[in-house]
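tokens incoming
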């Protein structure tokens, strides 16, 4: 006897490097669900968009890994009524390998690192004109990144000529290739959000039934939401990027005492606690927020 596992699919709002990201949707799926099922990506995106204010829903960039690089998902994203933009990973197919080998050496331009600076040993190129994209949405571009593998890294079968290749599709008509590739690669912040969600309850789904674990996912999403907005509204600097384990240690688990006096309620923290100042400043910021 065994119990079938579950395979959730999640979407997060990216608040950039200065803040955490809130979960917009965590859709629970059966354990046998595929990573590139277009219908599941569409439903998750639909749920995520419904969480955004209506006036922002047509100013959204959808980023996904190669699991989202399917005809069905991209056709849905590019429907004229939605006006969404996308930057989605693509699997390196044989046709794409052939196209990569045809790229002239002078067409590769330097890629950027995470700080937007030129990265040594990494390049990007647009291979759209070398591919048959007639079955894909109009205006789609395919951009490829190649880089020398890190020392000790094991080459994959999709690596050509001693370089590692990744590709993504986008509808962006303007912008430097390196900027577009960096924008897409920053989708990896989603992996940080998933790790945080696992630390907040998503690592193990503890209940037996599917519907019960759907409720568990909702509770986990609510916890992640509270953490994200607490950091955005109350904390500053690096504290905005503290992950749940660090928040528990430095903020949530600190010993304190509530004292009443002079018709006021005071929170007293140990003066020697290294982060007492951050906690006090966070409370002041929250109290200064307008009500309602």
């Amino acid at each position: 006897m065994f119990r079938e596992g579950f395979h959730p699919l999640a979407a997060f709002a990216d608040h950039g490097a200065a803040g955490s990201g809130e979960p917009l949707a965590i859709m629970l799926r059966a354990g046998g669900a595929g990573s590139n099922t277009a219908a599941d990506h569409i439903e998750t995106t639909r749920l995520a968009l419904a969480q955004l204010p209506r006036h922002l829903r047509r100013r959204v960039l959808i980023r996904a890994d190669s699991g989202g690089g399917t005809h069905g998902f991209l056709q849905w994203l590019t429907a004229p009524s939605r006006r969404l933009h996308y930057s989605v990973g693509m699997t390196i197919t044989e046709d794409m390998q052939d196209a990569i080998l045809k790229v002239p050496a002078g067409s590769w331009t330097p890629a950027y690192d995470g700080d937007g600076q030129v990265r040594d040993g990494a390049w990007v190129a647009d291979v759209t004109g070398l591919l048959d994209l007639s079955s894909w949405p109009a205006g789609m571009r395919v951009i490829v990144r190649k880089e020398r593998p890190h020392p000790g890294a094991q080459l994959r079968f999709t690596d050509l000529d001693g370089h590692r290749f990744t590709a993504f599709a986008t509808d962006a008509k303007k912008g430097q290739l390196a900027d577009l590739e960096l924008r897409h690669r920053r989708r990896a912040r989603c992996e940080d959000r998933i790790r945080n969600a696992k630390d907040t309850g998503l690592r193990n789904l503890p209940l037996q039934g599917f519907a019960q674990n759907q409720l568990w996912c909702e509770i986990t999403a609510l916890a992640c939401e509270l953490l994200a907005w607490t950091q955005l509204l109350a904390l500053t600097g690096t504290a905005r990027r503290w992950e749940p384990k660090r928040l528990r240690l430095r903020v949530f688990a600190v010993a304190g005492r509530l004292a009443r006096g002079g018709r006021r309620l005071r929170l007293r923290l140990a003066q020697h606690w290294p982060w007492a100042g951050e906690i006090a400043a966070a409370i002041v910021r929250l109290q200064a927020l307008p009500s309602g």
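note: The longest strand covers residues 118-126.
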